[in-house]
């Protein structure tokens, strides 16, 4: 799937992100044009290098241009030293152009990957309901940034987390940390819980008196929108209304 198809798919749901991605596509094309120019310069430099090698071979009689061979020629012919200096200068220029081309390509690739990663994490955070569970757009950006830190996408599209040293991060349950698990950590963390609306806080970030299980017997996250009327009544009867209100919608 090319970039145009990606933009078309997300444009209706995320028009702002689609516009940003379109603008980035333009920048991407301009940068590739610059890379193309550098490649042409590189080709010209390579041709000059080959011409210089031919000149050196004709002037010195050397078939294979090696350091030892050139030193032997320098001992006999002082003019050869100037030719060798020109040759070294051409080689240095060639290396410089090659380095610029590689850097330009790497920079374009890095920015493109960062943009796609950001859009993927934003989509994942929206699926969790984060925009509706925090106090403001600014609060959402803070939570999104925390969710993105250390996050990595698996081949199956799942999200896991890595420490700065590359080791796998684990949740309180001893299992590999997931996006849902990291989100719940933020809700219960005093450092970030203030960003969430009161009914969505959990653990240490939750208001006193609002206590109850956050998952069913099978370990699935309890959500008020997914509970039957009977389950809601039973939950409130057993754990109180504040505890029910604290469940995510």
Portion in beta strands = under 5%
Given as residue ranges, the uncertain stretches (5+ residues, pLDDT < 50) are none
Apparent shape: elongated
Strand-and-helix sequence, N→C? Answer: HHHHHHEEHHH
Q: Tell me the major beta sheet.
A: 2 strands, antiparallel
> What is the mean pLDDT?
75
**Measured on Cα atoms, how large is the radius of gyration?**
31 Å
Number of domains: 3
Q: Going across the major beta sheet, what is the strand order?
A: 1-2
SS field, number of helical segments: 9
Instruction: State the separation between the terminal residues, measured CA to CA.
Output: 34 Å
By helix and strand content, what is the structural category?
A: mainly alpha
The residue fraction in helices comes out at: 55-70%
**DSSP E strands, number:** 2
What this model shows, in words?
With 249 residues, the protein is an all-alpha fold. The model has no long low-confidence stretch (mean pLDDT 75). The relative contact order is 0.07. The chain is 63% helix and 2% strand. It is elongated and about 105 Å long. The chain has helices at 3-11, 15-60, 67-76, 79-128, 130-133, 137-148, 179-188, 229-239, 241-245; strands at 151-153, 159-161. β1 and β2 form a beta hairpin. It has 3 domains: 3-128; 131-198, no CATH class; 208-249, no CATH class. α1 (3-11) runs antiparallel to α2 (15-60) and α2 runs antiparallel to α4 (79-128).
Question: What tags apply to this protein structure?
Answer:
two-stranded antiparallel ribbon; 9 helices; 2 strands; 249 residues; 2% strand; mainly alpha; 3 domains
